[in-house]
Description:
B: three-stranded antiparallel beta sheet; elongated; disordered N terminus
Amino acid sequence: MSDGALPPRPDYQPGSAQPRLNRPVRERYPQIRPTSGYGDPRIRHTGPGPGAGSEQEPERSAKLNARLALALTVVIGQLWALTVTVNEWMEGNTGTAWWAAGFLILSFLVVLGLWLLDPKDR
Amino acid sequence: MSLTEPPPPATGPELAGEDAAERLRDRISADSLTTRRDYLRIVATVSGGLAIGGVGVASGILHRHGDSESLPRTKKVADRLAPGESVAFRFPGDEDRALAVRLSDGALVGYSAVCTHLACAVLWREDRGADGELYCPCHEGVFDARTGGGTAGPPPRPLPRIFLTEETDGSVWAVATARSGESAREALCRQFGEDRPDMARRLGCPGADRATESRRT
């Protein structure tokens, strides 16, 4: 199909070019009750919350996901290190237990760094 | 409030309270009440707790069951112990539960009766296994009666050993302890080294000769 066959583009405006799609959710979907899908009676509006789809830099979201995944992985490593610490202490290997404790502290500092990085990301 | 729904126009200062209520309602009705950054904060808190716990463990906050730094006082366990029998006692401290067992072939063994998994009481079960077993009923932990090593279940470490001697009259005495997984020589040298240098020398402990000489001079 050539470009000449396309209708002219409407002027850009937020939302849809069709006014009927820009009506409030309550009018478009009268079946949705104020608390549909929620057990919490305080929630009056269903569907996407304010700000949904308005992410200015979507790639920051992926970075935050990655930081969270890294932090969780480090915590799993810490759980392992704590079992090592307890076992070594109980066997009388106090030096090894202190090394494991040092590993735990370093891991905590890594998680702390991941948390302090880009504090505005949500 | 959805994106396509325009905010109601404020008509005067009297609507400020309503505005605040509406904003609060919007915040509550937002998709995620807990943000990923909140999760990250929780994870960091857990991580800090684990680090503090690790330092606490390494600095000795936990009690080593059935262990004593110095040579414990010898304790009479039983007047006589027949094959297949066991006796429960406290050694080296009054809080340290222990167990002495005479195996069917006459061997005498002693262990801490505190399970290395979650500190439940360990029981002697003669009817289990070829030689009988040390059994923790809490989580089905099983220890070998001859070595104290874990053979089944969740216990991560062997049972701490207790060294027993038998007198000519048949009485059984507890004399020393070994930590979980510690060799007998290491354990005996650690405890006899300072208090009983003659015994340490007989055991061939490192540094025993020097200690004896320095005492003589």
